[in-house]
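Sequence of Prefoldin subunit 2 (Dendrobium nobile).
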Amino acid sequence: MASKASSENRESSINEQAIASIYASMRSEINQFYSKITELEMEVSEHSLVIGAIQPLDPSRRCFRMIGGVLVERTINEVLPAVQRNKEGLQEVIARLNEALEKKKKEVAEFEVKHKIKVRKSDSESKDDGGWKAGSAQGVLVGPAS
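Predicted 3D structure, token representation.
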């Protein structure tokens, strides 16, 4: 009888470990979505800066664009539409990633409810959140155009 209780204990322990492993991988996927979205949003921001910088210039003026590690000389008239298309494409990808992220969040929430998982924040995390202020991010210093 003791061996039966011990084997049940081992099975539930293994089952809990499997659940914890699955939950950790799901949380990891969510973090990957966040990091990819952040990375793409930074690229959209860079595209916006480039568009803002070259749009008011003469369309026949020459400019350089990096394509696959090769610097190519083109005119602003040729480069501007391509940069705008790339920006729009990135925004579409970000929208799809946000949809997938929301779907994954719902999946994780259902998994938490199904397996009665409760997430506790540590004291240091709750203190860090309280001290955060909007607008405290570092900026980029840009010199005058030559």
